[in-house]
Design goal:
Strand order of the largest sheet: 1-2-3
Shape: globular
Radius of gyration: 18 Å
Number of strands: 9
Structural class: alpha/beta
Mean pLDDT: 89
Strand content: 5-15%
Largest sheet: 3 strands, parallel
Number of helices: 9
Order of helices and strands: HEHEEEHEHEHEHEHEHH
Helix content: 25-40%
Low-confidence stretches: 1-8, 14-18, 286-306
């Protein structure tokens, strides 16, 4: 079954994939870098192909407050400790009342994962209870709801099944977000398994990269996966995990969209709809290769406590 899915995925790709085309499906996983705030201007530049973004939280990022064509997607990162809390629901409704174009929300970042790896570590029963209270009411506002964004491990399938069982029909998700860190064959196989399990929902790929591989393999993975996403109609949005400098990348320097000096790499430029830049990423300017991971862990802690 795995080989059939992979061969089917490869069959729809063109023989040449040295550069991807523009796509309205692309969005930004926004990971801010306080040391280099100038990098923020890259993502919503007039020439950028990106149409939407999320930042792991419920409120839009101030740096994009004036971006009219860059839609914010709020996220309920984890479950609040107070089981009567409705702060996420209140925030999203307030944004809508204020004129914001909130058409979608994301929920529960890797709830089957631990905070040490950026996950929200939420039991499926608690997530279901929280969803019914804080997320489901947004359906009446015309908002489309993203199912919990579980990891790409088998634990993710198990957790999601337990979540929908605990919901007892009261969690009407519209689309399934996917996270994947690995090669293209594994990605295509995983997407096929998710589609088979939830055939009536569209799919968003909200985090993906092939970590730790060399530049040639990283570029091949990026272009193959982008072509694949753009040609599959039930994959409606995707966001590459790499919006940071190569010197702080926790998925390897060659997967990053910015060099250690803040220049767009080939992958970064392609993702924004441009041509190859020839700028080669490196980890040389910093030795803290895990800084990106630490940043996500801090974000996870912040949203869990808020």
């Amino acid at each position: 079954m795995r080989s059939t899915i992979i061969l089917g995925a490869l069959a729809i790709l063109s023989p040449a994939f040295s550069q991807v085309t523009r796509s309205s499906k692309r969005g930004l996983v926004y990971v801010p870098n306080a040391n280099y705030p100038q990098d923020n201007n890259i993502w919503d530049a007039p020439s950028s192909d990106l149409t939407w973004y999320y930042n792991y939280g419920p409120e839009p990022s101030p740096t994009f407050s004036n971006a009219t064509d860059f839609q914010f997607v709020p996220m309920l990162f984890g479950a609040p400790n107070d089981t009567t809390d409705t702060s996420f629901l209140t925030s999203v409704k307030s944004q809508i009342s204020g004129g914001a174009n909130i058409s979608y929300v994301l929920t529960f970042n890797e709830p089957d994962g631990t905070s040490a790896t950026g996950g929200s570590d939420v039991p499926s029963e608690l997530a279901a209870e929280t969803w019914i209270r804080e997320v489901e009411p947004l359906k009446a506002q015309g908002v489309k709801l993203g199912a919990p964004a579980v990891t790409g491990a088998q634990t993710g399938f198990t957790w999601l099944q337990q979540f929908f069982t605990a919901c007892a029909g009261n969690c009407s998700a519209d689309f399934i977000p996917i996270h994947w860190y690995g090669d293209f064959g594994g990605l295509a196989s995983h997407i096929g398994q998710v589609r088979a399990a939830y055939p009536n929902m569209s799919i968003w790929i909200t985090e993906y990269a092939d970590p730790g591989v060399n530049l040639t393999d990283s570029q091949s993975f990026f272009n193959m996966s982008s072509q694949y996403f753009d040609r599959i109609d039930y994959i409606t949005r995707y966001s590459y995990f790499g919006s940071f400098r190569s010197s702080v990348s926790n998925v390897g320097p060659d997967a990053a969209m910015l060099t250690q000096n803040g220049q767009l790499t080939d992958i970064g430029s392609w993702y924004l709809g441009g041509s190859a830049t020839g700028f080669v990423p490196s980890a040389a300017s910093r030795t803290a290769a895990t800084a990106g991971s630490s940043m996500l862990v801090l974000l996870a802690t912040f949203w869990c406590l808020s």
